[in-house]
Design goal:
about 35% helix; three-stranded antiparallel beta sheet; alpha/beta; Aspartate Aminotransferase, domain 2; globular; Aspartate Aminotransferase, domain 1; 14 helices; 2 domains; seven-stranded mixed beta sheet
């Protein structure tokens, strides 16, 4: 593993102003997942060790007023959860998604945990999740001792396969989690129909999905419950953060209680009770107003961010389509009834050897490309829930060949042309 560079504060002239200096990195630039020393698993064994990348996989972009708003939050004297910036962001999320109720949380994982609480899951209750997803999709429900049931994905959209879901539903199925991979919508109409027949609840894991649409409806506004992520790799970020979208009124009051340590404090703040107390289970899921201040500035720039991301996505698709056809490479499909969130650009190589060779080829040009999820049914924890090889063949196949190219809103045309040129110079 490459050594993680130590950072030290340096002040010049004014001890009240500090800049973090990282040896071997540009002054003032904070390392992120673009640096192999900080996220070594993203780099293949044998890839030349580098501290910086000429073109990283991700670079956090600023909307312009992040630091101004953080300073304003501090001056306001309200930096805890559910402050003015939090409330402003929640209203903006409702406007963007069409969801009637948005509740900011400290992460998408925590929003998923709230979903598990809201369903009153008991040991043995079954929750169907795609095997090809981030671990939080399963962990949130496993933590409530639910039985995790792994569903395969479609080979075209890379989303949960609604046909496999139908085969997996039993009398114990309580929830079906639809992960909108890459910000492309799952087949929500079909999943909702399956859920209605079985008495289950569909939950949208829209960690990739903000700004995406399915049949004209915002991703996150369709199922009774949905979750969002504002992790640093997402289109809109505050470093760490998330949201729960409540589209079914029966869950709303309890969601507020769960988010605020199991208390009815939200009613107290609205003047509905003269004091608040412990009334239910829950945890501390509120997002700090400092992070919400950062997020507010991101929302202000979201139109430009999304326009830029769409342009980058389309340029990759158009610039590499001929190369992909010659080399047996597939892109993630976008159904006509879906509008993507433009979250990532994924390519499926013919096999692991080709994928790893392309990653190494790009690394030799100073470009960081990465693979993605390993199927949860094959993970050590997944095996304890009955996971086994061959259970989700499409997921297992996709995981061996999928590769993601650098994708961030501050990517310049020149940087993207360099990536396209480097990829086009590689032959499978």
């Amino acid at each position: 593993m490459a050594r993680i560079p130590r950072c030290r504060p340096r002040h010049r002239g004014n001890p009240g102003r500090r800049r973090w200096i990282y040896p071997s990195l540009r002054v003032g630039r904070i390392p992120d997942e673009s640096h192999s020393g900080l996220v070594p698993l993203l780099v293949l064994p044998g890839t030349p060790a580098v501290t910086t990348w000429r073109i990283p996989f991700n670079r956090v972009g600023l909307g312009g007023r992040e630091f101004e708003y953080i300073s304003q939050a501090v001056r306001n004297g309200f930096v805890a959860g559910n402050g003015p910036f939090c409330i402003s962001c929640e209203r903006e999320l409702e406007r963007i998604t069409g969801s009637p109720h948005a509740l900011l949380t400290s992460s998408c994982t925590h929003a998923l945990e709230m979903c598990a609480y809201l369903l009153n899951l008991e040991p043995g209750d079954e929750v169907i999740v795609p095997s090809f997803t981030f671990v939080s999709t399963a962990l949130a429900f496993a933590s409530r001792r639910a039985k995790i049931v792994f569903a395969d994905i479609r080979p075209d959209t890379l989303n949960i396969d609604e046909r496999h879901v139908e085969e997996l539903v039993t009398s114990r199925t309580r929830a079906i989690v639809a992960v909108h991979y890459g910000g492309i919508g799952c087949e929500m109409d079909r999943l909702e129909e399956i859920a209605r027949r079985s008495g289950a609840v569909v939950i949208e894991d829209a960690a990739h999905g903000l700004f995406g649409r399915y049949r004209g409806r915002g991703l996150g506004s369709i199922a009774p419950l949905a979750t969002l992520s504002f992790h640093e790799t997402k289109n809109i970020t505050c470093g760490e953060g998330g949201a729960l979208l409540v589209n079914d009124e029966r869950f709303l009051e309890r969601a507020h209680i769960l988010r605020d340590k199991g208390t009815n404090r939200s009613k107290f703040l609205k003047g509905q009770v003269d004091k608040y107390t412990w009334v239910d289970t829950g945890s501390s899921y509120l997002l700090s107003d400092i992070l919400a201040a950062f997020l507010s500035a991101q929302f202000e720039a979201s139109l430009d961010i999304q326009r830029r991301r769409e342009a980058i996505w389309r340029r990759y698709s158009e610039g590499l389509s001929d190369w992909a056809g010659r080399n047996g490479v597939r892109f993630q499909s976008v159904p006509d009834h879906c509008s993507p969130a433009w979250h990532l650009f994924a390519m499926v190589m013919p096999d692991t050897a080709a994928r790893d060779a392309l990653i190494s080829h790009l690394a030799s040009h100073g470009i960081l490309a990465v693979f993605h999820y390993q199927p949860l049914n094959l993970s050590r924890m997944g095996v304890t829930y009955g996971g086994r090889p061959g259970q989700c063949p499409v997921s297992e196949s996709i995981a061996t060949g999928l590769l993601r190219l650098p994708f961030f809103s501050s990517m310049t045309d020149g940087e993207q042309e360099d990536v396209i040129r480097a990829v086009a110079g590689f032959g499978v």
